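Regression report. Comparing outputs from two consecutive submissions.

Submission 1:
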Amino acid sequence: MTKNELLDGPSMTRALTRIAHEIIERNKGIDECILVGIKTRGAYLAKRLAERIEKIEGKPIRTGELDITLYRDDLSMKHDNEQAHVEQVDINYVVANQKIILVDDVLYTGRTVRAALDAVMDLGRPSQIQLAVLIDRGHRELPIRADYVGKNVPTSGAERIVVHLQEVDGEDCVTIYKED
């Protein structure tokens, strides 16, 4: 297996800073926006985006976290009684008539995002839902595209992209693994 680094720590920081600026510009500020990170790595990326946006705008953006386990169509995490294992949804704001910006690390088939869309809609009816991802690797199975992308990386099905974050893995980098 061959391993190549796609983004190092500084490159990741620059990509997130660019996405933060794009979010502010597209939404003409942040007053009606809520950043919602898809657990686990998307939640950490959303916190980083929120920090950058606050530095730029001079005020905090509302944030939340979403565990989409229950909403996945390939649900595999279950308790012994075959019931889905669901973690906390941590969005302390009314989502109705707000712009929700979902944040995730890698966009691949689109199934995680579809599950997140279902979860958000169960909380209320936002005026708009946008998607920000660090990496878009293609291979969509559903008609979903990101509004904000840190890096587009065309891949094959045999390749795997792994995002390492300081908060979870002790380092910031994005690597691609290719089968030899």
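Submission 2:
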Amino acid sequence: MSDNFTSDTLDLTTGSQEAAVDITDRCAAFLARAARGRDGLLNVFVPHATAGIAIIETGAGSDTDLLAQLRELLPADNRWHHRHGTPGHGRDHVLPAFIAPHATLPVLGGQLALGTWQSVVFVDTNVDNPHRQVRLSFLG
């Protein structure tokens, strides 16, 4: 691969509860190695059918609010046609229609160009699979 494109995988363990995991620092660490001060784009991709990437504020309750609203919007009950796994697991397969499994972010001078309160957050409502991956790719 050329120097203009670099990719790596993050391994995450989300546990047995719904999770909103801030991965901003891990994205920045990847860019320190991959971008080396260059401008470009960071693509964050989740290769799972039941998780997504959100750009939100964390630490002030927004991450907790997001999970609460997802429970309200996508309840874990028996309404879902997709029925393997824990009760209500079908909702986990609908999640990526609301929280995309990817985000492409600007990189300036090797740093994420996020807004003041923005963070890159891995969102996972699937309690059946605590072992997850996120693919980070830098193009610059």
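Expected: both submissions complete independently.
Actual: both completed, but the second showed a warning that disappeared on reload.
Relevant detail on submission 2: Strands lie at 5-13, 19-22, 40-45, 51-56, 102-108, 111-112, 119-124, 131-139.
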